Amino acid sequence: MASGLGGRPADDAAVRMPLRFGDDPLLWASWLYYEEGLTQGTIAEQMGVSRPTVNAYLAEARARGIVNVEISPEKFSGLSIAQSLRDHFGLQDCLVIPTEGVERPLIPRLGEAGARVIARILRSGDTLAVTWGRTVLSLADQIGPLDLKDVRVVQATGGTTARIPWTPEACASTLAKAINARAIPISAPAIVSSAEVRAMLMQEAVLAEQLAILAEADKIVMGISSLRPESTIHTSGFLDGTMQLAHYQDAVGSLAGRFISARGEPVIGPMHDRTIGLTLDQLRRIPQRIAIAGGLDKVAAILAALRGGYVSILVTDIATGRGILSAEGYREPPRRSAPQSDAPLPARMEVKKFINDPKDAVDEALRGALAAHEDLIAPVPGSTRAVRAIDGPRPGKVAVVIGGGAGHEPAFWGYVGPGLADAAAVGNIFASPPPDPIIAATRAVQGGAGALFIYGNFSGDVMNFDMAAEVMEAEGVTVRSIVTTDDIASSPIELRTSRRGVAGNVFTFKIAGAAAARGLALDACEALARHANARTYTMGLALEPCSLPETRRPTFALGPGDMEIGVGVHGEPGVERRGIERADACADLLLDRILSEMPASRGDEVALLVNSLGSTVNFELYIILKRVRQRLKARGLRVHRTFVGAYYTSLDMAGVSLSMMHLDPELKELLDHPCRSAALTILPEERITAKAT
Amino acid sequence: MPGQAQVRLETATAFCPCYRMAQITGRDIVDLFRLIALRLSEGRSELGALDGAIGDADHGNSMAEGFSAVVRATSAMTNAAPFELLMVAGRSFLSAVGATTGPLYASAMLAAGRDLEGKVTLEPADVVRLVPAFARGIAERGKARPGDKTMMDAWGPAARAATDALNAGLAPARCLSLAETAAREGCDATRAMVASIGRAARLGARSLGHVDPGAASAVIVIAALHEWLADHEAATAEGSG
Q1: What is the rounded distance in angstroms from the CA atom of residue A162 to the CA atom of residue A169?
Q2: Cα(A190)–Cα(B43) distance, rounded to whole angstroms?
Q3: N or C terminus of chain A with fewer C-beta within 10 Å?
Q4: Strands A479-484 and A451-456
Q5: Which chain B residue shows the shortest CA-CA distance from A550?
Q6: Cis peptide before A393, with omega less than 30 degrees from 0?
Q7: Distance (Å, rounded) from C-alpha B106 to C-alpha B95?
């Protein structure tokens, strides 16, 4: 019994151990884990030992044969064949179901498995191409409604004879209806009488539009047809025996009405120029290609499709899979024992930082910024926390004064410069500046036309800016305050005015700066800044908390597999915590929230900001952006300008925020107005043109 | 500093002659600020941890830095009256801190300063009255209501307890003891509150179970007032006895 695994449980735990386990902690742990289904953490608490000890108990219980883990032979076989197919053909994934159905024949069971795969991989905004056949129709019949938005299902080819139930039209429309997607038909026969007819038809605008959508497919779900007499390709009237004998003797299979050889190469025959639909080249360029096919008569066709790289996810059955592997001469490599799972990484406790004295950090960083951008910004004399633009004040121009806490760099000094803000006041880390620097900044840049204060809606900023405004008004300077409220996670829509101002500030700064630079009066500048704020939406998500220079500790704890949704810009926790998801799902989460509020119609234009919360690198921001652009395209929204990078940060927080400004002609023009600052420069049109030539 | 306590019989409290010796000067007020700064500095990591749960983990630093700045600004003002020191304290706290805490405590100290305007020295009951004065200043500036899960949930009950105790004729240190207890209970009660204003408001129901950091720092300030007055009275009693 002495195990060398950290010994037996502490005495009091031994007392707690029910007698039936005969004083055997291995048996007790095994029972709790395998029979009662408790987690190792809970078991550790119950047994009064550490979690690693529980883990060790369970390992030893298996090693000693107290526990036997056995996967049923049928399932095991499916798993191992799936893994071999995946490894050998470089598939993204593979699902192999039992060949012998208990109640149902193979085709409906393959259809059901295919439906599960589609439900797993389909995402909002996807365009899914669909071929035709018994298996594909069976899939369409069995898939349930999916909670997705803006999905399009497009026919992969033109239509066929209506003598069969599984026509391309039926497959696509049934599937689209089942998952609440938009169905895009291909309004032409799959096979036309001549190449000339095809060429003429292809010029029809309706067909050209449909084919253009088909060319944008992100995913395709397809059957694989053999060329056996009873195969889909024959029954759907695509190919007759004579034609096959004359021109397609090299073909072993068919995908989307195109023919391939045993090596997976295209077989070009007289039908090629008469077929309307996806070409094999186009098919291979679709990012995810799901083939669903089974039956021993299809082994050659499936193997050919795999060899040709037309499939990235295969759904088949055990007998077919085994047949494919043996036809390929594939032998399973001997299996190694499963690798030990990695021990969890130690949580980051003290965060390393380039800091001298934490108390000096804000002033030192600001001095560095002023030195780096001395052509743009300068300190306001007599104040260490007020920054002004070099060019100014301009008499008769409305002064735009922005500000907020430090820790958001390049905000706020990064948005001071011609065409943007005239001055900025900086507070302590994540703390509003007091009234003094706001007053100093305003005095330094006001040009007799009033001042516009723009800052995020935080109680501290509101109080301090209001106090500064009172002083300026007493000095005869008219002040209007724009309190930004773009953070849609911070309050429900009915409480829009109580929302926080976050990265979307950049857009409001830009619009107000352009309005002031154009010489508009204070009233007009104020109205435009409010308009910009009302049409700007931001949603953020954090993967790691930030840490303050003073404490060098994370401001909140986030589990290794967790992400924080709707996180604030001060390292404060967000509104919801859940398991981390793939980049596309994260992007969808941000975008769906924004789109649910933004009243945009197809054809509307937006400006985008994919912003790093601090330590997330551009590499990942671009992955997020890719998905956002893909979704916006599917939604029919046009992106006028895209900004990617660290525009508004929370020290070293890892995460991203997505900001979107719903443009109208006025906002678009002001957004395009040239500006120059440390963080945002928009060149005049002519300079862009000059550069390009 | 019992030796420095000036004896001003004409302003001594009528109802309790034993406090005659406990006159409080500007120097004593600076000493009080120093104690508050020390206690906040000791509590900064604890406050930071509270704030990390629902805020940005910087409240402890803001409070400690703010009162350090108060001590720096006032320590050289050797001959200033208490009300002048409170005015300077309010302004220096604001300039050092900004944020939400800055305007709120600045308003607190300015309100207290206005109440004591013209008085060259204070009596112990005036130190007790700092609590309702601070609470009034904070409430006027912050406009928080009871139950909003803010520092007012500690300052409000403390102010009421202090005023009731003074009206009941209790000894000043006892009054602050009751105020401290009320502040602690109020602070504890914020656990069950859902933040509706301030930075924690975005958390909604997730702020449940967490003490409000502003209420927690209010407890530290009120406890320091109590501690200081109790020590002052004890020292004065010794000095006079």
Answers
A1: 9
A2: 77
A3: C
A4: parallel
A5: B61
A6: yes
A7: 9
Rounded to the nearest 10°, the torsion over CA A267, A272, A278, A284 is 20
User: How far apart (Å, rounded) are the C-alpha atoms in residues B54 and B206?
Assistant: 8
Is the ipTM here above 0.90? no
Task: In whole angstroms, give the CA distance from residue A549 to residue A409.
Answer: 14
Beta bridge partner(s), residue A315: A95, A292
Distance CA B59, CA A181 (A): 50
Q: How far apart are CA B2 and CA A24, in angstroms?
A: 70
CA dist., res. A446 & res. A567, Å (int): 35
Q: Which of A480, A386, A399 is nearest to A447 (CA)?
A: A399
Which chain B residues contact residue A459 at CB under 8 A?
Answer: 100, 142, 197-199
Task: Identify the residue among A360, A555, A564 best suited for mutation to test binding to B, counting B beta carbons within 10 A and taking the highest.
Answer: A555
Q: Which of A431, A550, A573 sits opposite B97 (nearest CB)?
A: A431
C-alpha B234/C-alpha B241 separation (Å) is 10
Query: Counting beta carbons within 10 angstroms of the beta carbon of residue A18, is it exposed (0 to 12), middle (13 to 18) or buried (19 or more)?
Result: exposed
Q: How does DSSP classify residue A678?
A: S
Report chain A (693 residues): mean pLDDT per 10 consecutive residues: 44 65 86 85 88 88 79 74 86 88 83 94 94 95 92 95 88 96 95 93 94 95 88 79 77 92 89 93 94 89 93 93 81 49 55 89 95 96 93 91 96 97 95 96 96 94 95 96 93 82 97 97 98 97 89 79 82 76 94 94 97 97 97 95 97 96 98 97 70 42
pTM summary value: 0.72
| Whether A673 is catalytic | no
User: What is the residue whose two structure tokens read 């695994």?
Assistant: A5
Considering only CA atoms, which of A385, A460, A411, A484 is closest in space to residue B58? A460
The tokens describing A559, both together, are: 């589990």
The conformation of residue A273, written as its DSSP 8-state character, comes to G
Q: Is the peptide bond before B93 cis (omega within 30 degrees of 0)?
A: no
Any B CB within 8 A of A436 CB = yes
CATH topology classification for B12-236 = 1.25.40
| Largest Cα–Cα separation, chain A | 97
Please state, in angstroms and rounded to a whole number, the distance separating the CA atoms of residues B3 and A192: 112
∠ CA A450-A456-A462, nearest 5°, is: 70
By the 8 A CB rule, do A63 and A282 touch? no
Whole-number Å distance between alpha carbons of B236 and A628: 71
Strand partners, A129: A154, A220
**CA–CA gap between residue B217 and residue B187 (Å, rounded):** 9
Q: Is A616 on the interface with B (CB under 8 A)?
A: no
Interface with chain A: mutation pick from B58, B91, B110, B197, highest number of A CBs within 10 Å: B58
* Residue ranges of domains in chain B: 12-236
Tokens of A453: 């204060």
